Amino acid sequence: MYSTFADISINFKEYIVFSGEKTKANLEKYMRTCKNFEENIEKVKRSFKNFLGPFATLFAGNVPRNCSTQQKKIFQEVDEFCDRFPKISTRNRVFLSLFSRQVDKLRPEDIKMAGKLLSEGDTNLQEKVCRFSCFDTLAKLYKKYEPNIKNGYLAINIKNGTAVVNPDGNLPDNEKRMKLFFEYWMPSWNVLFNTKPTPEDFEKFFQSDCYIYMGHGHGSQLLSGSKISEMNVNAVVFLFGCDSVRLTSMGHHAEMIASHIYYHNALCPAVVGSLVIGLDLSMDVLSTQIISSWIASKKTKHWSTMNMKAWKDGTIQQNPNSTAATPSHERRLACAVAKARAYESEKNYNKVGLVYRGLPVYNVSRSKM
Question: Signal peptide position in this chain (predicted)?
Answer without folding.
Answer: none
